[in-house]
Amino acid sequence: MVAGRIGDGDTVGTMVRMSSELRDRVKAAAIEHGRSMNSEIVSALEEVYPAPLDIDELDIAAAAAVMFHPQRAKGKFADAYAIVCEYVEENYSIPDAAKALDERWNNRSETDPISAEQVYEWLFGTLYPWVDSLRQAYDEERSPSLEF
């Protein structure tokens, strides 16, 4: 492993050997996704080896779930609640996010409060862009191909 040559200190270089067929598939995927082969490989690895749970983000997601819970405001925010749960299920591989977020919120220490500003920052900085990326992927998948 080659360390310290690339990036800001958190990035390390490594040599990977692969068959020419696999290299061709990686190259095709990189072109399709508009990124370098290195970025394509890193993206694939991050999907298979996700980062450990981000405690702070899950606490904030739990706060958002409490805000949007269907029992509040006569269910007015039930769709937003479902989206928060779907985000947590998909990004943290937590099968029953509603239950997990509820338990997480109820077991939090009251000495570490979460502000509405932190929740809104997470909504606009993380959750809404994630929803937009899903919509974009859905639209691209459903758009007719004009290739002849």
Brief sketch in words of this structure:
With 148 residues, the chain is mainly α. It has six helices and two strands, in the order ββαααααα. The chain has helices at 20-33, 37-48, 55-68, 78-92, 97-106, 116-142; strands spanning 2-3, 12-13.
End-to-end CA span:
46 Å
Helix amount? 55-70%
> What's the quaternary structure here?
single chain
Count of DSSP H/I helices: 6
Radius of gyration, taken over Cα atoms and rounded to an integer in Å: 20 Å
Global morphology: elongated
Helices and strands, in N-to-C order?
EEHHHHHH
Unreliable runs = none
Biggest sheet details: 2 strands, antiparallel
* Content-based structural category: mainly alpha
Strand content: under 5%
Mean pLDDT: 85
**Taking strands numbered 1, 2, ... along the chain, how are they ordered across the largest sheet?**
1-2
Task: List how many beta strands DSSP finds.
Answer: 2
Report on the architecture of this protein:
With 148 residues, this protein is mainly alpha-helical. Helix content is 62%, strand content 3%. The chain is built from six helices and two strands; from the N terminus they run ββαααααα. Strands 1-2 form a two-stranded antiparallel ribbon. The chain is elongated, with a radius of gyration of 20 Å.
Describe this protein with a few key phrases.
148 residues; mainly alpha; two-stranded antiparallel sheet; 6 helices; 2 strands; 62% helix; elongated
List the helices and strands and how they pair.
Blueprint: E1 2-3, E2 12-13, H1 20-33, H2 37-48, H3 55-68, H4 78-92, H5 97-106, H6 116-142
Antiparallel strand pairs: 1-2
